[in-house]
Specification:
Elements: E1 3-7, H1 12-23, E2 27-32, E3 47-50, H2 56-63, E4 68-71, H3 81-99, E5 107-113, H4 137-150, E6 158-163, E7 165-167, H5 175-182, E8 185-189, E9 195-196, E10 198-200, H6 201-213, E11 220-223, E12 230-231, H7 232-243, E13 248-252, H8 254-267, H9 279-286, E14 289-290, H10 295-301, H11 309-323
Parallel strand pairs: 1-2, 1-4, 2-3, 4-5, 5-6, 6-11, 7-10, 8-13, 9-14
Antiparallel strand pairs: 9-12
Helix pairs in contact: 1-6, 2-3, 3-4, 5-7, 7-11, 8-9
């Protein structure tokens, strides 16, 4: 039986990954903090390892006998620059140190991000050879984490997947957009269409698993994304069809989005948990395109998008509705 160690297992992508690995008869260890809500994995037959990515003894002990390490955890919002680097770079280094002590490790899979590449023009998607120009602290920290991983490529078999926007059941990042459209408004940033590569969560999970099982992926970086690029107008219209009522499009000037984000940043002083909508996020939102050329993943991994936008949005909308989220 294959054994896997998963970080971020209680989150959106991580919990779906755990379910998929269980379906493939993996034996799984999940790293979780004692304060973490185990809602999505509490009833699953997994071994819970209490600790965090800064407890080196726990990491070494938990990873010493596994075949695969899936590093999904990361910091997507922080009050400070150091928070991103601590959660995305230093944490990854600690896990790499632990992994390097397991001589039988078959793969270290890292869930990276297209934000580490930076935005593209709407017509020219980047590939793995494109220069990386991240525009946010989050993106820069994810790129630094990649560099740390590649330093270990001669010690352990590593693979990096740079993931696009991901949606599906349990996702909170796109929830507000679904809510807005469900209430009759398609909120759009700027006065021209912005393009995005976006995948339903099961396609992302599949990419992580097939990369872990493919020997051609050792030491490689792959950009993962949808077969076509979508506009937010298209995504909104698809949700509108699920909601079965008419909507209106409201366009917010880019400068207004930045100002609103700055105000929200100031209000973060009074919050224990940093808001996801901040100056950093506004940079992502006003960019022309977050897209990727997935030729390498298609050719080397035989990766294919299996859930199109219509089906994925329908599944997500129905789940949100059932759970009372919208």
């Amino acid at each position: 039986m294959k054994k896997a160690f998963v970080t971020g297992s209680t989150g959106f992508i991580g919990s779906h990954l755990v379910e998929a690995l269980l379906n493939k008869q993996y034996k799984i260890k999940c790293l979780v903090r004692k304060s973490t809500n185990l809602k999505w994995i509490k009833d699953l037959p997994v071994e819970i390892v209490y600790g965090d990515l800064f407890n080196k003894d726990v990491l070494t002990q938990a990873t010493k006998d596994v075949d695969y390490i899936f590093h999904i955890a990361g910091v997507t919002a922080s009050h400070t620059k150091s928070g991103y680097y601590l959660g995305n770079v230093e944490a990854t280094k600690n896990l790499l140190d632990a992994a390097s002590q397991n001589p039988n490790l078959k793969r270290f899979i890292y869930a990276g991000s297209l934000t580490a590449v930076g935005p593209a023009s709407s017509k020219v998607p980047p590939n793995e050879e494109s220069p990386c120009n991240p525009i946010t602290t989050y993106g820069k920290s994810k790129l630094e984490a990649e560099k740390e991983i590649l330093k270990f490529k001669d010690k352990i078999p590593v693979t990096i997947l740079k993931l696009p926007a991901v949606y599906g059941p349990r996702d909170t990042a796109t929830l507000d957009f679904f809510k807005a459209v469900s209430r009759g408004i398609i909120p759009l940033v700027g006065y021209k269409s912005k393009y995005i590569s976006i995948l339903y969560v099961t396609d992302v999970v599949n990419a992580l698993i097939i990369a872990s099982e493919n020997e051609r992926a050792v030491g490689e970086i792959f950009l993962i994304g949808s077969e076509k690029f979508y506009t937010w107008e298209e995504i909104g219209a698809t949700i509108e069809r699920c909601a079965k009522h008419r909507t209106i499009k409201i366009r917010f000037p880019e400068f207004a989005v930045v100002i609103a984000a700055a105000i929200n940043n100031l209000l973060d002083v009074f919050r224990k948990k940093p808001s996801v909508f901040n100056i950093e996020k506004s940079k992502d939102m006003i960019a022309d395109a977050w897209i990727a050329d997935i030729t390498k993943a298609r050719n080397h991994l035989n990766f294919r998008q299996t859930v199109d936008l219509e089906e994925g949005i329908r599944k997500t909308f129905d789940w949100y509705k059932k759970e009372g989220w919208i």
